[in-house]
Protein backbone atom coordinates (compact mmCIF):
# COMPACT_ATOMS: atom_id res chain seq x y z
CA UNK A 1 0.00 0.00 0.00
CA UNK A 2 1.41 3.35 -0.91
CA UNK A 3 2.52 5.80 1.75
CA UNK A 4 0.73 8.67 3.43
CA UNK A 5 -0.55 11.54 1.33
CA UNK A 6 0.48 15.10 2.10
CA UNK A 7 -1.85 18.04 2.07
CA UNK A 8 -1.22 21.07 -0.09
CA UNK A 9 -0.47 24.37 1.56
CA UNK A 10 -3.59 26.52 1.74
CA UNK A 11 -3.48 30.25 1.16
CA UNK A 12 -4.61 32.60 3.89
CA UNK A 13 -8.08 34.00 3.21
CA UNK A 14 -6.71 37.52 2.81
CA UNK A 15 -4.13 36.31 0.33
CA UNK A 16 -6.82 34.62 -1.73
CA UNK A 17 -8.64 37.94 -2.06
CA UNK A 18 -5.71 39.74 -3.66
CA UNK A 19 -6.26 41.06 -7.14
CA UNK A 20 -5.72 38.44 -9.88
CA UNK A 21 -3.37 40.81 -11.74
CA UNK A 22 -1.09 41.09 -8.71
CA UNK A 23 -0.99 37.30 -8.37
CA UNK A 24 -0.15 36.95 -12.03
CA UNK A 25 2.74 39.41 -11.72
CA UNK A 26 4.09 37.58 -8.68
CA UNK A 27 3.97 34.25 -10.50
CA UNK A 28 5.79 35.71 -13.49
CA UNK A 29 8.51 37.05 -11.19
CA UNK A 30 9.17 33.62 -9.68
CA UNK A 31 12.41 32.04 -10.78
CA UNK A 32 12.28 28.88 -12.82
CA UNK A 33 12.98 25.81 -10.65
CA UNK A 34 16.42 24.29 -10.98
CA UNK A 35 16.38 21.22 -13.23
CA UNK A 36 19.15 18.94 -12.02
CA UNK A 37 18.52 16.29 -14.67
CA UNK A 38 18.46 18.34 -17.91
CA UNK A 39 17.11 15.65 -20.21
CA UNK A 40 18.32 17.53 -23.27
CA UNK A 41 22.00 17.24 -22.31
CA UNK A 42 24.34 14.25 -22.47
CA UNK A 43 24.59 12.33 -19.22
CA UNK A 44 20.96 12.89 -18.31
CA UNK A 45 20.43 9.29 -17.22
CA UNK A 46 23.33 9.35 -14.77
CA UNK A 47 22.11 12.65 -13.35
CA UNK A 48 18.56 11.31 -13.07
CA UNK A 49 19.46 8.33 -10.93
CA UNK A 50 21.91 10.34 -8.84
CA UNK A 51 19.34 13.08 -8.20
CA UNK A 52 16.16 11.03 -7.78
CA UNK A 53 17.47 7.81 -6.21
CA UNK A 54 20.71 9.02 -4.60
CA UNK A 55 22.79 6.25 -6.18
CA UNK A 56 26.12 6.53 -7.98
CA UNK A 57 26.07 6.60 -11.75
CA UNK A 58 28.05 3.37 -12.02
CA UNK A 59 25.40 1.33 -10.19
CA UNK A 60 23.57 0.07 -13.26
CA UNK A 61 22.26 -2.97 -11.40
CA UNK A 62 20.14 -0.63 -9.28
CA UNK A 63 18.58 0.79 -12.44
CA UNK A 64 17.66 -2.68 -13.60
CA UNK A 65 16.19 -3.48 -10.18
CA UNK A 66 13.95 -0.40 -10.38
CA UNK A 67 12.92 -1.35 -13.91
CA UNK A 68 11.99 -4.87 -12.80
CA UNK A 69 9.77 -3.51 -10.03
CA UNK A 70 8.17 -1.13 -12.53
CA UNK A 71 7.44 -3.96 -14.98
CA UNK A 72 6.02 -6.01 -12.13
CA UNK A 73 3.79 -3.02 -11.39
CA UNK A 74 2.57 -3.08 -14.99
CA UNK A 75 1.73 -6.76 -14.54
CA UNK A 76 -0.12 -5.92 -11.31
CA UNK A 77 -2.20 -3.26 -13.06
CA UNK A 78 -3.07 -5.49 -16.02
CA UNK A 79 -4.04 -8.34 -13.73
CA UNK A 80 -6.10 -5.98 -11.58
CA UNK A 81 -8.23 -4.93 -14.55
CA UNK A 82 -8.45 -8.27 -16.34
CA UNK A 83 -8.44 -10.85 -13.51
CA UNK A 84 -8.83 -9.04 -10.21
CA UNK A 85 -6.43 -7.73 -7.58
CA UNK A 86 -3.21 -9.76 -7.75
CA UNK A 87 -2.19 -8.85 -4.20
CA UNK A 88 -3.28 -6.22 -1.71
CA UNK A 89 0.23 -6.11 -0.23
CA UNK A 90 2.27 -5.25 -3.31
CA UNK A 91 3.33 -1.68 -4.09
CA UNK A 92 5.96 0.04 -6.23
CA UNK A 93 8.66 0.86 -3.65
CA UNK A 94 10.04 4.01 -5.29
CA UNK A 95 8.85 7.57 -5.84
CA UNK A 96 10.14 7.69 -9.42
CA UNK A 97 9.95 5.56 -12.55
CA UNK A 98 12.93 4.19 -14.50
CA UNK A 99 13.78 4.95 -18.12
CA UNK A 100 12.32 2.62 -20.74
CA UNK A 101 15.86 1.96 -21.96
CA UNK A 102 16.57 0.26 -18.63
CA UNK A 103 13.98 -2.44 -19.29
CA UNK A 104 16.66 -5.07 -19.87
CA UNK A 105 17.25 -8.49 -18.34
CA UNK A 106 13.59 -8.74 -17.38
CA UNK A 107 12.91 -12.11 -19.01
CA UNK A 108 13.40 -13.89 -15.70
CA UNK A 109 11.13 -11.55 -13.78
CA UNK A 110 8.67 -13.36 -11.53
CA UNK A 111 5.12 -12.16 -11.98
CA UNK A 112 3.86 -14.15 -9.01
CA UNK A 113 2.21 -12.19 -6.22
CA UNK A 114 1.43 -13.10 -2.63
CA UNK A 115 -1.93 -14.82 -2.39
CA UNK A 116 -4.58 -14.61 0.30
CA UNK A 117 -4.00 -10.94 1.10
CA UNK A 118 -6.74 -8.61 2.29
CA UNK A 119 -7.28 -4.86 1.81
CA UNK A 120 -7.00 -2.46 4.72
CA UNK A 121 -10.21 -1.89 6.62
CA UNK A 122 -11.75 1.56 5.96
CA UNK A 123 -10.40 3.42 8.99
CA UNK A 124 -7.03 1.69 8.68
CA UNK A 125 -6.89 2.94 5.11
CA UNK A 126 -7.47 6.50 6.30
CA UNK A 127 -4.59 6.10 8.74
CA UNK A 128 -2.43 5.09 5.79
CA UNK A 129 -3.29 8.00 3.49
CA UNK A 130 -4.35 10.96 5.64
CA UNK A 131 -1.90 13.58 6.94
CA UNK A 132 -2.06 14.66 10.57
CA UNK A 133 -3.94 17.80 9.47
CA UNK A 134 -6.91 15.57 8.60
CA UNK A 135 -6.93 13.74 11.94
CA UNK A 136 -10.37 15.18 12.78
CA UNK A 137 -11.78 12.57 10.38
CA UNK A 138 -10.11 9.73 12.31
CA UNK A 139 -11.48 8.18 15.54
CA UNK A 140 -10.02 10.15 18.43
CA UNK A 141 -8.09 7.24 20.02
CA UNK A 142 -6.29 6.68 16.72
CA UNK A 143 -5.86 10.33 15.76
CA UNK A 144 -3.47 10.84 18.68
CA UNK A 145 -0.98 8.55 16.95
CA UNK A 146 -0.68 11.07 14.12
CA UNK A 147 0.52 13.94 16.31
CA UNK A 148 1.85 12.59 19.60
CA UNK A 149 5.68 12.94 19.56
CA UNK A 150 5.88 9.65 21.48
CA UNK A 151 3.83 7.78 18.87
CA UNK A 152 5.67 4.81 17.38
CA UNK A 153 4.43 5.81 13.91
CA UNK A 154 4.85 9.59 14.14
CA UNK A 155 7.34 9.36 11.25
CA UNK A 156 4.45 8.39 8.95
CA UNK A 157 2.99 11.89 9.32
CA UNK A 158 5.70 14.52 8.72
CA UNK A 159 4.53 18.13 8.86
CA UNK A 160 7.35 19.21 6.59
CA UNK A 161 8.47 17.24 3.58
CA UNK A 162 10.22 17.89 0.31
CA UNK A 163 8.26 18.39 -2.89
CA UNK A 164 10.34 17.65 -5.96
CA UNK A 165 9.06 19.75 -8.84
CA UNK A 166 10.53 17.12 -11.16
CA UNK A 167 10.59 19.46 -14.14
CA UNK A 168 7.28 21.14 -13.34
CA UNK A 169 6.69 24.75 -12.27
CA UNK A 170 4.17 24.60 -9.42
CA UNK A 171 4.28 22.65 -6.16
CA UNK A 172 0.95 20.90 -6.77
CA UNK A 173 2.48 19.34 -9.88
CA UNK A 174 5.49 17.95 -8.03
CA UNK A 175 6.30 14.66 -6.33
CA UNK A 176 5.61 14.68 -2.58
CA UNK A 177 8.50 12.76 -1.03
CA UNK A 178 6.55 11.20 1.80
CA UNK A 179 7.60 8.01 3.61
CA UNK A 180 6.03 4.72 2.63
CA UNK A 181 3.73 3.34 5.31
CA UNK A 182 4.89 0.07 6.86
CA UNK A 183 1.63 -1.82 7.37
CA UNK A 184 3.08 -4.11 10.06
CA UNK A 185 4.15 -1.12 12.14
CA UNK A 186 0.80 0.59 11.51
CA UNK A 187 -1.25 -2.40 12.66
CA UNK A 188 0.98 -2.94 15.69
CA UNK A 189 0.50 0.70 16.74
CA UNK A 190 -3.28 0.50 16.27
CA UNK A 191 -3.78 -2.83 18.04
CA UNK A 192 -4.07 -1.45 21.62
CA UNK A 193 -6.72 1.05 20.49
CA UNK A 194 -9.24 -1.11 18.62
CA UNK A 195 -11.29 -1.69 21.77
CA UNK A 196 -11.60 2.06 22.27
CA UNK A 197 -13.61 2.53 19.07
CA UNK A 198 -17.31 3.20 19.47
CA UNK A 199 -19.78 0.65 18.09
CA UNK A 200 -20.52 2.98 15.18
CA UNK A 201 -16.79 3.32 14.42
CA UNK A 202 -16.35 -0.45 14.58
CA UNK A 203 -19.12 -0.85 11.99
CA UNK A 204 -17.51 1.78 9.78
CA UNK A 205 -14.20 -0.07 10.07
CA UNK A 206 -15.61 -3.36 8.79
CA UNK A 207 -15.54 -4.86 5.30
CA UNK A 208 -19.12 -5.58 4.28
CA UNK A 209 -21.21 -6.19 1.20
CA UNK A 210 -21.72 -3.73 -1.59
CA UNK A 211 -25.09 -1.96 -1.59
CA UNK A 212 -27.60 -1.39 -4.36
CA UNK A 213 -30.01 1.54 -4.14
CA UNK A 214 -32.79 1.01 -6.66
CA UNK A 215 -35.57 3.42 -7.59
CA UNK A 216 -39.09 2.62 -8.85
CA UNK A 217 -38.13 3.18 -12.50
CA UNK A 218 -35.55 0.37 -12.46
CA UNK A 219 -36.61 -2.92 -14.03
CA UNK A 220 -35.45 -4.87 -10.97
CA UNK A 221 -37.38 -2.75 -8.46
CA UNK A 222 -40.38 -5.05 -8.07
CA UNK A 223 -38.23 -8.16 -7.67
CA UNK A 224 -35.94 -6.59 -5.06
CA UNK A 225 -38.93 -5.18 -3.22
CA UNK A 226 -40.13 -8.77 -2.89
CA UNK A 227 -37.11 -9.57 -0.72
CA UNK A 228 -38.81 -7.60 2.06
CA UNK A 229 -42.35 -8.93 1.58
CA UNK A 230 -41.48 -12.64 1.52
CA UNK A 231 -42.56 -12.78 -2.12
CA UNK A 232 -38.95 -13.66 -2.88
CA UNK A 233 -36.92 -16.04 -0.71
CA UNK A 234 -33.86 -13.96 0.05
CA UNK A 235 -32.63 -15.57 3.26
CA UNK A 236 -29.69 -17.19 1.47
CA UNK A 237 -29.53 -14.57 -1.24
CA UNK A 238 -31.52 -14.25 -4.43
CA UNK A 239 -29.79 -14.37 -7.84
CA UNK A 240 -30.45 -11.23 -9.85
CA UNK A 241 -29.84 -10.10 -13.42
CA UNK A 242 -30.63 -6.42 -13.84
CA UNK A 243 -29.60 -4.32 -16.82
CA UNK A 244 -26.87 -6.85 -17.64
CA UNK A 245 -25.56 -6.90 -14.06
CA UNK A 246 -25.54 -10.35 -12.49
CA UNK A 247 -25.05 -11.15 -8.82
CA UNK A 248 -26.77 -12.08 -5.58
CA UNK A 249 -29.00 -9.78 -3.53
CA UNK A 250 -29.72 -9.99 0.20
CA UNK A 251 -32.07 -7.98 2.42
CA UNK A 252 -30.26 -5.22 4.30
CA UNK A 253 -30.98 -5.20 8.03
CA UNK A 254 -30.76 -1.41 8.22
CA UNK A 255 -32.79 -0.66 5.09
CA UNK A 256 -35.39 2.11 5.33
CA UNK A 257 -38.83 0.76 4.54
CA UNK A 258 -40.89 2.02 1.61
CA UNK A 259 -42.72 5.12 2.81
CA UNK A 260 -40.40 5.35 5.81
CA UNK A 261 -38.17 8.22 6.89
CA UNK A 262 -34.38 8.36 6.77
CA UNK A 263 -32.82 10.53 9.45
CA UNK A 264 -29.93 12.41 7.90
CA UNK A 265 -26.56 11.18 9.16
CA UNK A 266 -25.20 14.66 8.42
CA UNK A 267 -25.96 17.27 11.06
CA UNK A 268 -28.09 20.15 9.81
CA UNK A 269 -29.64 18.38 6.82
CA UNK A 270 -33.34 17.58 6.63
CA UNK A 271 -34.51 13.95 6.90
CA UNK A 272 -35.72 12.15 3.78
CA UNK A 273 -39.43 11.51 4.10
CA UNK A 274 -41.64 9.02 2.24
CA UNK A 275 -38.73 6.89 1.04
CA UNK A 276 -39.29 5.05 -2.25
CA UNK A 277 -35.82 3.52 -2.73
CA UNK A 278 -35.09 -0.18 -2.19
CA UNK A 279 -31.76 -0.94 -0.49
CA UNK A 280 -30.20 -4.40 -0.73
CA UNK A 281 -26.83 -5.95 -0.03
CA UNK A 282 -25.17 -7.19 -3.20
CA UNK A 283 -22.43 -9.70 -4.00
CA UNK A 284 -20.69 -10.11 -7.34
CA UNK A 285 -20.57 -13.56 -8.95
CA UNK A 286 -17.92 -15.74 -7.25
CA UNK A 287 -15.19 -17.57 -9.16
CA UNK A 288 -12.41 -19.95 -8.20
CA UNK A 289 -9.04 -18.35 -7.46
CA UNK A 290 -7.49 -20.00 -10.53
CA UNK A 291 -10.30 -18.96 -12.90
CA UNK A 292 -9.05 -17.10 -15.98
CA UNK A 293 -11.31 -14.42 -17.44
CA UNK A 294 -10.90 -14.44 -21.24
CA UNK A 295 -9.38 -11.13 -22.31
CA UNK A 296 -10.84 -10.97 -25.79
CA UNK A 297 -13.62 -9.37 -27.79
CA UNK A 298 -17.10 -10.82 -27.62
CA UNK A 299 -17.99 -12.95 -30.68
CA UNK A 300 -20.33 -10.39 -32.30
CA UNK A 301 -18.45 -7.25 -31.29
CA UNK A 302 -18.11 -4.63 -34.02
CA UNK A 303 -15.23 -2.18 -34.13
CA UNK A 304 -16.21 1.48 -34.54
CA UNK A 305 -15.08 3.10 -37.77
CA UNK A 306 -11.52 4.35 -37.69
CA UNK A 307 -11.29 8.12 -37.61
CA UNK A 308 -8.16 10.18 -38.09
CA UNK A 309 -8.17 12.84 -35.39
CA UNK A 310 -6.30 16.09 -35.31
CA UNK A 311 -3.27 16.68 -33.10
CA UNK A 312 -4.17 16.83 -29.43
CA UNK A 313 -7.63 15.36 -29.92
CA UNK A 314 -8.81 12.87 -27.32
Automatic annotation (TrEMBL):
**Got a GO cellular component term for this one?**
nucleus
Q: Is Magnesium a UniProt keyword of this protein?
A: no
Q: Which GO terms describe its biological process?
A: mRNA processing; nuclear-transcribed mRNA catabolic process
- List all Acidic residues biased stretches: 25-34
Query: What GO molecular-function term can you cite, just one?
Result: RNA binding
Limits of the Xrn1 helical domain: 11-309
Q: Where is this region: Disordered?
A: 1-36
Signal peptide (residue range): none
Write out the entry's keywords from A to Z. Answer: Exonuclease, Hydrolase, mRNA processing, Nuclease
One Pfam assignment? XRN_M
Q: Which family does it belong to?
A: Belongs to the 5'-3' exonuclease family. XRN2/RAT1 subfamily.
Q: What is this protein called?
A: Xrn1 helical domain-containing protein
Origin species: Phlebotomus papatasi (Sandfly)
Amino acid sequence: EDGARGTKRKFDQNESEQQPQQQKEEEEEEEEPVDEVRLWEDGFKDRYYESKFDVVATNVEFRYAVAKQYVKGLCWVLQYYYQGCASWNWYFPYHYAPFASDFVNISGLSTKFEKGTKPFKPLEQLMGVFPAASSSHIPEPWAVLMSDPKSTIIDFYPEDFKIDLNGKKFAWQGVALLPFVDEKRLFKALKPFYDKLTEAEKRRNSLGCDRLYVGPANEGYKFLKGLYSNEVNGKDGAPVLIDGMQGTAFPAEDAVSIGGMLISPVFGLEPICDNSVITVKYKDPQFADDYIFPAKKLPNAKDPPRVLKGAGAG
